[in-house]
């Protein structure tokens, strides 16, 4: 990328190849494909998530944070399977008029999180598009053979657990859009920060291998995602709204406007882990939580019932009706249940 408009191969050499330098099998991002030796005793765990400007992030979000969010939403899926992240493959469709400064900042964001998580970019594709910026990442990880966590592992009577806090991302998007008034500027910044830069529970995931029964991450919305876990396990769930962990910022927002509970339950953009474990695991999970400095909160139970049904109980003991439990790209009136 010298002088004027960025050139495809210059861009790959300058922005992406340095992120492959630590892994010889990537062949310097100068060949047709990468080589990964199969590791005896491990399963490779593969996942892919895309992000589209205006759909997953705001077009004027800082480019380094767009890059880091792209990595993090994918690492969240690996963590949900108890896997340790290893490699990334990036497909980037940049609008033709993307500028060099934008690209350099995007590359710097990728580099930062590749370093932070100790992973390598081992390949991808770079194209131009007449449409919005569209980014697709494949993340590859590893887990001990046969031990990876599944959505289908929940057992009747298990406690439902979530990591961290729920609702910050969805409330953060509202804050950015000026739809959250009355909270302090610091709280607003915390929430918008959580929307732009999730914190995937990469250390926690592998530690759940001996503890969790069913597991997934929360991306679309707590209620919809728990419904997926329940359906995969042939069970139903009952959770208590008052037990859902809130950050101080989210709690302050809800205190001013209780209708924001819908964003917490269904807004998505959480990238926290959602898992079930037997009641006896509670003490070990509490120890793990303090060891890792990641909150773990029991919010309810899975039980036999209408497969996939999630019942949310309010502080008054009555059911809170939830029409749509989370984000849907197609179908449904509004795109999430807020
Ligand atoms: N176009 C597709 N081709 C093949 N498999 C797909 C396709 N879209 C989704 N899937 C698969 O469907 C399953 C559910 O995908 P989904 O994207 O809902 O999960 P997720 O990544 O955990 O959620 P989110 O996208 O909200 O982060 C995954 O196994 C995914 O690989
Ligand atoms: C600008 C903007 N508008 C709305 C949202 C909310 N949103 C979009 S997709 C999605 C689920 C995860 O995506 P996927 O299922 O495609 O992986 C959520 C919660 C957002 N993040 N940004
Ligand atoms: Mg997905
Ligand atoms: Mg995902
Ligand atoms: Mg997921």
Can you list the ligands bound to this structure? Answer: adenosine-5'-triphosphate, thiamin phosphate, magnesium ion
Report the portion of residues in β strands. Answer: 15-25%
SSE ordering: HEHEHEEEHHHEHEHHEHEEE
> What does the main sheet amount to?
7 strands, mixed
Shape: globular
How many helices in DSSP terms? 10
Just give the CATH class of the largest domain: Alpha Beta
CATH architecture assignment name of the largest domain:
Alpha-Beta Complex
Radius of gyration using CA atoms only: 20 Å
What is the distance, rounded to the nearest whole angstrom, between the alpha carbons of the first and last residues?
Answer: 44 Å
Mean residue pLDDT = 96
Major sheet strand order? 6-8-5-9-7-10-11
Give the low-pLDDT segments. none
- CATH-defined fold name of the largest domain: Phosphoribosyl-aminoimidazole Synthetase, Chain A, domain 2
The number of strands is 11
Taken together, the total number of domains comes to: 2
What level of helicity do the residues show?
25-40%
Structural class category: alpha+beta
Identify the CATH homologous superfamily of the largest domain.
PurM-like C-terminal domain
Binding site for Mg(2+) 3: 32, 77, 217
Domain PurM-like C-terminal: 155-312
Binding site for substrate: 56, 269, 327
Family: Belongs to the thiamine-monophosphate kinase family.
């Amino acid at each position: 990328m010298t002088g004027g408009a960025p050139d495809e191969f210059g861009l790959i050499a300058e922005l992406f190849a340095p992120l492959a330098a630590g892994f010889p099998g990537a062949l310097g991002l100068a060949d047709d494909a990468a080589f990964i030796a199969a590791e005896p005793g491990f399963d490779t765990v593969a996942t892919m998530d895309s992000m589209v400007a205006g759909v997953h992030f705001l077009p004027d979000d800082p480019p380094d944070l767009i890059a880091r969010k792209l990595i993090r939403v994918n690492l969240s899926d690996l963590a949900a399977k108890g896997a340790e992240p290893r490699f990334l493959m990036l497909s980037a469709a940049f609008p033709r008029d993307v500028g060099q400064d934008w690209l350099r900042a995007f590359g710097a964001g990728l580099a930062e999180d590749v370093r932070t998580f100790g992973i390598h970019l081992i390949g991808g594709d770079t194209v131009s598009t007449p449409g919005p910026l569209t980014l697709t990442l494949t993340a590859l990880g590893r887990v001990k053979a046969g031990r990876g966590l599944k959505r289908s592992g929940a057992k009747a009577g298990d406690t439902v657990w979530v990591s961290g806090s729920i609702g910050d991302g969805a409330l953060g998007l509202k804050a950015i859009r000026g739809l959250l008034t009355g909270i302090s500027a610091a709280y607003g910044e915390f929430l918008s920060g959580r929307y732009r830069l999730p914190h995937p529970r990469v250390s926690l995931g592998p530690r759940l291998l001996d503890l969790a029964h069913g597991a997934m991450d929360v991306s679309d919305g707590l209620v919809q995602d728990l419904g997926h876990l329940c359906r995969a396990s042939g069970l139903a769930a009952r959770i208590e709204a008052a037990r859902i962990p809130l950050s101080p910022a989210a709690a302050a927002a809800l205190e001013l406007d209780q209708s924001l509970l819908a964003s917490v339950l269904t807004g998505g953009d959480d990238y926290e882990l959602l898992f079930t474990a037997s009641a006896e695991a509670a003490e070990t999970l509490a120890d793990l939580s303090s060891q890792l400095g990641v909150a773990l909160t029991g919010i309810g139970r899975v039980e036999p019932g209408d497969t996939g049904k999630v019942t949310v109980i309010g502080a008054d003991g009555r059911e809170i009706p939830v029409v749509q439990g989370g984000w849907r790209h197609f179908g449904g009136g509004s795109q999430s249940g807020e």
